[in-house]
Amino acid sequence: MITRSDEKKDFNDIYEIINDASSAYKEIIPLDRWQEPYMPKEELKKQIREGVEFWNYTEDSEILGVMGIQFMKDVTLIRHAYVRTAQRKKGIGGMLLKHLCDMSETPILIGTWADASWAIDFYKKHGFRLLSETEKNKLLNIYWSIPERQVETSIVLANDDWISNT
Q: Who's near 34: CB < 8 A, 6+ residues apart?
């Protein structure tokens, strides 16, 4: 079942899932971008304060996956998409992504690490397209608050609504 997260009640589960699932990035993303935990609690709280709404996929009262959505002025960002390591490859991420895409009334952008091929393949499978390096750099600086080094090592994907409006 997919439900909007109660960030206060679900905070520890969201934190745990993000940091469990992000272990896939270890030794994949640049070493200077890796930290333990991958997303500290203060950073997660900051993301929520800045408007990231988390949605949960729950089975038998256990949250198995989370995905964030952030409505900006003219775009929707999909943020922090993670499924518990033990629950991967069961369609949970796809169900969450479809639910959030159905909620969006503006073009959707997704940023991820350039070397996270499995994440890129997942988004491509669900109809997203890689944007050019030039457009990626511009968009990461407009819609995300990330260090320049992360901009250098990331990519941006967009749905067809974005592509048809550019």
A: 25, 26, 27
